[in-house]
């Protein structure tokens, strides 16, 4: 995935980034609120040597102090310093725990030692820092006092130490805590949230093999997308676009109708199978509304429900389902006896009774005869068939047709499913006219159809009459159509 694709993925999955950002900020805020404030008190010591006024001795003393001061800093956190401080101040802690809250630092090329103490109480932090400095001074001076042999042969210390430590800055109670830091925690939360959100988006894009846009579908299948049907939450309740002819869905099906008519200008297909990879992709909805759109344009159209496992055409129109295609196939009726009419001049051949052997019926010679008879009677026959992957019904049926439309649901159908379905149709020699991208997200920034363009597709009376005369439609023996 390149940078452009990743940025598009971020824009498409922005709720994931926002949720991660809010969670990270909330965590940072909670950590800041629940953390106990910690204060730091700082004292500074100056290390000097006891020398005379001779310049050489002063320089030697200075070099001696700088050489020793780094070692002195390591003594600050030893037990011989912290244990007396704990006892002196009556602290409810151990010398080791106190040592973990003390930091000693000797800047290079100086004779200074900075002692910092952290505590949850400002005044106590200052008291501990000063007590540590006093005790540390005593320990260092005692360690630096040279030993001498007494008259009895035992060693003893002289009364003076060559090193002297003085306090240059006493610790005072701090006024503000050094931890937690709200601004720093917030910045860290924002950064962590953005990184987490971007990581999750990248992971989901890597694991998600569905097709999100029509461009992705075209690139993957090398088939033209003849129509992108926008998602409409009211579609299950109002599946027919005739309920609102100015809606985005209605305009999308009119565009699909036009693209289909222009896709094969020299040899327009008259028998078209509409199928999908798996159930739930909008296959029946596409077949029904495409047939209605063709009939609306004046094209003599017949819709056949050949999904003999889960027929849905009759319930969609409110027609009788018991008598239909299967009735004709077993010879109990003629086509004209069971053909029904819906609104808009569309002829509908429902599925009829559900048979026990749909695959054999749909691939039979009698089915081929029925389709040929319908193609001789109508300009276009739209056949709603079963999904390709779960059952083999459509493969035998599609080989009898002149073309197929493959319906792909946006962000739902996987690449493997689309690839397998297309390869299945290719193996039986079916010409796939193109794909239909169903339930596609509505592009931002446009109220296409009934919005900024008004009642798009509706022409004034004089222009409408002129359009009828110049319409390009499939050839047929009975009707002249309009687009």
From TrEMBL:
<keyword id="KW-0732">Signal</keyword>
<keyword id="KW-1133">Transmembrane helix</keyword>
<comment type="similarity">
    <text>Belongs to the CpsC/CapA family.</text>
</comment>
<keyword id="KW-0812">Transmembrane</keyword>
<feature type="signal peptide">
    <location>
        <begin position="1"/>
        <end position="30"/>
    </location>
</feature>
<dbReference type="Pfam" id="PF13614">
    <property type="entry name" value="AAA_31"/>
</dbReference>
<keyword id="KW-0547">Nucleotide-binding</keyword>
<feature type="compositionally biased region" description="Low complexity">
    <location>
        <begin position="148"/>
        <end position="166"/>
    </location>
</feature>
<keyword id="KW-0997">Cell inner membrane</keyword>
<keyword id="KW-0808">Transferase</keyword>
<dbReference type="Pfam" id="PF02706">
    <property type="entry name" value="Wzz"/>
</dbReference>
<feature type="domain" description="Polysaccharide chain length determinant N-terminal">
    <location>
        <begin position="1"/>
        <end position="89"/>
    </location>
</feature>
<dbReference type="InterPro" id="IPR003856">
    <property type="entry name" value="LPS_length_determ_N"/>
</dbReference>
<protein>
    <recommendedName>
        <fullName>non-specific protein-tyrosine kinase</fullName>
        <ecNumber>2.7.10.2</ecNumber>
    </recommendedName>
</protein>
<comment type="similarity">
    <text>Belongs to the CpsD/CapB family.</text>
</comment>
<dbReference type="InterPro" id="IPR005702">
    <property type="entry name" value="Wzc-like_C"/>
</dbReference>
<dbReference type="InterPro" id="IPR050445">
    <property type="entry name" value="Bact_polysacc_biosynth/exp"/>
</dbReference>
<keyword id="KW-0472">Membrane</keyword>
<keyword id="KW-0067">ATP-binding</keyword>
<keyword id="KW-1003">Cell membrane</keyword>
<dbReference type="InterPro" id="IPR025669">
    <property type="entry name" value="AAA_dom"/>
</dbReference>
<keyword id="KW-0418">Kinase</keyword>
<feature type="region of interest" description="Disordered">
    <location>
        <begin position="146"/>
        <end position="168"/>
    </location>
</feature>
<feature type="domain" description="AAA">
    <location>
        <begin position="271"/>
        <end position="399"/>
    </location>
</feature>
<dbReference type="InterPro" id="IPR027417">
    <property type="entry name" value="P-loop_NTPase"/>
</dbReference>
<keyword id="KW-0829">Tyrosine-protein kinase</keyword>
């Amino acid at each position: 995935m390149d940078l452009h694709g990743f940025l598009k993925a971020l824009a498409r999955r922005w709720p994931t980034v926002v949720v991660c950002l809010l969670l990270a900020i909330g965590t940072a805020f909670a950590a800041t609120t629940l953390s106990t404030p910690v204060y730091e008190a700082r004292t500074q010591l100056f290390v000097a040597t006891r020398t005379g006024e001779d310049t050489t001795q002063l320089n030697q003393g200075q070099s001696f102090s700088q050489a020793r001061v780094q070692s002195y800093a390591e003594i600050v956190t030893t037990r011989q310093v912290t244990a007396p401080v704990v006892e002196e101040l009556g602290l409810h802690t151990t010398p080791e725990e106190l040592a973990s809250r003390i930091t000693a630092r000797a800047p290079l090329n100086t004779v200074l030692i900075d002692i910092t103490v952290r505590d949850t109480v400002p005044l106590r932090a200052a008291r501990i820092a000063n007590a540590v400095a006093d005790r540390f001074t005593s320990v260092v001076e005692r360690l630096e006092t040279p030993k001498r042999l007494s008259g009895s042969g035992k060693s003893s210390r002289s009364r003076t130490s060559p090193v002297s430590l003085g306090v240059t800055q006493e610790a005072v109670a701090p006024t503000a805590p050094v931890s937690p830091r709200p601004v720093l925690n917030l910045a860290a939360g924002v950064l962590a949230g953005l990184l987490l959100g971007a990581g999750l988006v990248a992971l989901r894009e890597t694991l998600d093999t569905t097709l999100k846009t029509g461009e992705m579908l075209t690139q993957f299948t090398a088939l033209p997308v003849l129509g992108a049907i926008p998602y409409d939450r009211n579609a299950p309740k109002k599946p027919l676009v005739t309920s609102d002819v100015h809606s985005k869905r209605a305009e999308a099906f009119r565009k699909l109708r036009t693209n289909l008519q222009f896709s094969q200008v020299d040899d327009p297909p008259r028998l078209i199978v509409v199928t999908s990879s798996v159930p739930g992709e909008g296959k029946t909805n596409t077949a029904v509304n495409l047939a209605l759109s063709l009939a609306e344009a004046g094209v003599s159209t017949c819709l056949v429900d050949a999904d003999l496992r889960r027929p849905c055409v009759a319930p969609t129109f409110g027609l009788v389902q018991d008598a239909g295609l299967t009735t004709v196939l077993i010879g109990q009726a003629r086509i004209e006896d069971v053909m029904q009419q819906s609104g808009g001049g569309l002829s509908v051949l429902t599925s009829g009774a559900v048979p026990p052997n749909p695959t054999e019926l749909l691939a039979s010679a009698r089915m081929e005869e029925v389709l040929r008879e319908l193609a001789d009677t109508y300009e276009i026959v739209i056949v709603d068939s079963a999904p390709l992957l779960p059952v083999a019904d459509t493969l035998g049926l599609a080989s009898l047709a002149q073309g197929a439309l493959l319906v792909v649901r946006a962000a739902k159908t996987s690449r493997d499913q689309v690839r397998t379905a297309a390869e299945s149709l290719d193996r039986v020699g079916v010409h796939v006219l193109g794909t239909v991208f169903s339930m596609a997200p509505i592009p931002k920034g446009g109220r296409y159809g009934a919005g900024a363009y008004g009642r798009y597709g509706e022409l004034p009376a004089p222009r409408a009459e002129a359009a009828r005369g110049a319409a390009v439609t499939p050839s047929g023996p009975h009707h002249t159509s309009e687009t």
